[in-house]
């Protein structure tokens, strides 16, 4: 049995099948929201990515992904790392909890790794950030 979070960020028991979707409403698109995440100063640095957290009234574990042109010159590389980040988050969103939006910034080293390495680091950063659900057996 897993412990999940309700809309207020409080943990509750849940036997339902996790949602593996990542709809438009679960993504961040506005520049101002990205800027608020950066301005909050809450970040966790990993080998392949940096996780920024944004708290606010409308925060609901939405995802924003950044792969800069300065870091990844080729468009195909930017697209690949953003796809890796989205996939890792999509597969593990049900393990996260709290009233935060997450912005993931890709680092250069991510260019030559597989999705399982990205997933491992995402979960490690989420644990450090304190947004992982507590699993019960």
Question: Which descriptors would you attach to this protein?
Answer:
alpha+beta, 3 helices, two-stranded antiparallel sheet, 6 strands, 4-stranded mixed sheet, 137 residues
Q: How many DSSP helices?
A: 3
Radius of gyration: 15 Å
Strand order of the main beta sheet, please?
Answer: 3-4-6-5
Major beta sheet summary: 4 strands, mixed
Outline? globular
Mean pLDDT: 86
Measured distance between first and last alpha carbons: 6 Å
Strand % is 15-25%
Query: How many individual β-strands?
Result: 6
Q: Uncertain segments of ≥5 residues (pLDDT<50)?
A: none
Structural class estimated from helices and strands: alpha+beta
Helix content: 25-40%
The H/E string reads EEHEEEHEH
What does this structure look like?
This protein has 137 residues and is an alpha+beta fold. It contains 3 helices and 6 strands; from the N terminus they run E-E-H-E-E-E-H-E-H. The protein has helices spanning 31-40, 75-92, 115-129, and strands at 2-5, 11-14, 43-45, 49-55, 63-66, 100-106. It has a 4-stranded mixed β-sheet with strand order 3-4-6-5, sandwiched between helices. It has a two-stranded antiparallel sheet with strand order 1-2. Helix 2 packs across helix 3. The model has no long low-confidence stretch (mean pLDDT 86).
């Amino acid at each position: 049995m897993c412990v999940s979070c309700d809309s207020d960020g409080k943990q509750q028991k849940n036997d339902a099948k996790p949602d593996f979707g990542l709809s438009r409403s679960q993504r961040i698109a506005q520049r101002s929201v990205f800027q608020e995440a950066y301005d909050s100063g809450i970040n966790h640095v990993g080998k392949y990515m940096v996780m920024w957290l944004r708290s606010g009234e409308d925060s609901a574990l939405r995802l924003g992904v950044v792969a800069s042109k300065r870091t990844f010159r080729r468009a195909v590389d930017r697209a690949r790392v953003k796809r890796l980040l989205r996939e890792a988050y999509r597969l593990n969103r049900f393990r996260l909890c709290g009233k935060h939006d997450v912005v993931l910034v890709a680092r250069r080293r991510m260019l030559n790794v597989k999705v399982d390495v990205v997933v491992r680091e995402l979960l490690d950063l989420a644990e450090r950030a304190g947004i992982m659900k507590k699993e019960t057996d």
